[in-house]
C-alpha cells in the first residue's frame, strides 16, 4: 500500500510536527506499507492553469503524480484566517477532478483556536468529496496548547493520531475488498 502524508502549508511547524509524527506511526506500526511525505515547503509549485497534471514539469509533476499513485493520503493542514492555506488549495487545483477516486483520504488539522474546529467540515471535506475521495470521517484536530517545542505533548492527540492511521489503513483494505468483489461479480 502506498500512503502519502501531505504537509499542506509552506510555513509554521505544528502541521509539520503532526504529519511527521503520523508518518512515523505508520512506519513503526505498518512497516510493510510505503510512506512518502510531501512537505509543500520543499517544492516549488506554480499556480494551477487548468492543464492536465501529466503536462506539468519538475516539482509540480512529482507532487501530483505521487498523490495520484497513492492508495491513501493523509492531509495535514493548518487553519489560517478560518480557512485552509492557499498552497493546499493550489495542490487540489493542479489535480484532476477525480484525483481521489478509489483513494482513502484522512485529515489532520492544526489550529491556534478551538473556534476553527468546523473549518475541515465546511471547506476541506466538500472539496475532497467533489474529488471522489473516500473520506475517513473522524479527523484529528490539534490545538496550539497540544504542542511544546515541536513535540506533541497531549496523550489524547497521540492516541487519536494512532487511531486515524489505523482507520485509514483499514479503510483502504476494506475498499479494496469491496472493489474486488464488485469486479468479480461481472460476467466478462
| Portion in beta strands | 15-25%
Note the overall shape.
Answer: globular
Q: Percent helix among the residues?
A: 40-55%
On the 0-100 scale, what is the average pLDDT?
96
**Total number of distinct structural domains:** 1
H-E order: EHEHEHEHEEH
Instruction: Tell me how many strands there are.
Output: 6
Largest sheet: 6 strands, parallel
Rg computed from alpha carbons, rounded to a whole number of angstroms: 16 Å
- Termini separation: 27 Å
The chain-level structural class is: alpha/beta
Gross CATH architecture: 3-Layer(aba) Sandwich
- Total helices: the number is 5
| CATH topological fold name | Rossmann fold
User: What's the CATH superfamily, by name?
Assistant: Flavodoxin domain
Low-confidence stretches: none
- Name of the level-1 CATH class: Alpha Beta
Describe this structure as you would to a colleague:
The protein is α/β, with parallel strands linked by helices. The protein has one domain: Rossmann fold (3-Layer(aba) Sandwich). The protein is 41% helix and 18% strand. Strands 1, 2, 3, 4, 5 and 6 form a 6-stranded parallel β-sheet that branches. The radius of gyration is 16 Å and the shape is globular.
Please give a quick description of this structure:
InterPro entries: Flavoprotein-like_sf (IPR029039), FMN_Rdtase-like_dom (IPR005025), NAD(P)H-dep_FMN_reductase (IPR051814). With about 190 residues, the protein is an alpha/beta fold. The chain contains 5 helices and 6 strands; from the N terminus they run βαβαβαβαββα.
